[in-house]
Amino acid sequence: MEKADNNIYPVFSKILKRSDKETLLNQKGKVIWLSGLSGSGKTTIAKELEKGLHQRGFICQVLDGDNIRSGVNNNLGFSLEDRLENIRRIAEISKIFINCGIITINSFISPTEKIRAIAKEIIGANDFISVFVNAPVSVCEQRDVKGLYKKARAGEIRNFTGVDTVFEPMVNPDIELHTDRMSVADSVKKIIDHVLPLISMHGKKE
After folding, report:
1. What Cα–Cα distance (Å) separates residue 134 from each residue in 36, 180, 185, 199?
2. What are phi and psi for residue 133, nearest 5 degrees?
3. Neighbours of 68 (CB within 10 A)
4. CATH number (domain holding residue 175)
5. Which residue is catalytic, options 35, 38, 107, 110?
6. Domain tally, the chain
7. I want to staple 34 with a disulfide (CB 3.0 to 4.6 A). Which of 13, 42, 120, 153 is the partner?
8. The pLDDT value given to residue 4
9. Is 204 within the bounds of a domain?
């Protein structure tokens, strides 16, 4: 049987370059990857970060776990294998966005170092900004905005990170946010202060 890749002919060398699009948008495409437990504040911070960067003239796209799983990845479960595939697809989508000069803000639990390493490898270390949204599981469970911890404790949800599967703390993240004692505004400011030099081009307002 003939291999499928024998019939694939990439046209990357024939389309406009990333630099052309970044020049048009007057910004540098990057991926800001927020990892942390459910309830740690990832989604809230991602939404406010998008607003903050938008106000400064940057074009962003937020990719959030629930949104992606209700669409592109609605065929995946929560086994380790499916979690790996979930992150692989997200990383590939993110790469498309940054090749268009878009700043992508990703909000995903990304529970293991292996999973996060896969994302970083696909996207590229120079374009990957890691953010550890660090809140103790006890605080996240007290918040339990979506009622997920309660369901997991009752056995209604399996493979739930922080209850019956482990979250591995990030090692040497670019940014760490202790959201049990930092406000959303302070968390967003810390990210913006870090990323502005990385996403700004000459003439971009900071």
Report:
1. 6, 8, 15, 24
2. -85, 95
3. 20
4. 3.40.50.300
5. 110
6. 1
7. 42
8. 56
9. no
3: tokens are: 């291999």
Q: Is residue 104 part of a domain?
A: yes
Per-residue model confidence (pLDDT) at position 64: 83
Q: What value does the mean pLDDT of the chain take?
A: 87
Contact 56, 153 (CB under 8 A): no
Per residue in 12-60, pLDDT tens?
566 789 999 999 999 999 999 999 998 899 999 999 999 999 999 999 9
Model confidence over 109-154: pLDDT tens digits? Answer: 898 999 999 999 999 999 999 999 999 988 988 888 788 878 878 7
Which three-class secondary structure string do you get for the chain? CCCHHHHCCCCHHHCCCHHHHHHHHCECCCEEEEECCCCCCHHHHHHHHHHHHHHCCCCEEEEEHHHHHCCCCCCCCCCHHHHHHHHHHHHHHHHHHHHCCCEEEEECCCCCHHHHHHHHHHHCHHHEEEEEEECCHHHHHHHCCCCHHHHHHCCCCCCCECCCECCCCCCCCCEEEECCCCCHHHHHHHHHHHHHHHHECCCCCC
Among this protein's residues, is 130 annotated catalytic?
A: no
Q: What is the pLDDT of residue 12?
A: 57
Model confidence at 1, in pLDDT bands (50, 70, 90)? very low
Could you list the residue range(s) of the whole structural domain that residue 36 is in? 17-199
Kindly state whether residue 1 falls inside one of the protein's structural domains.
no
- Chain position carrying tokens 């607003």: 51
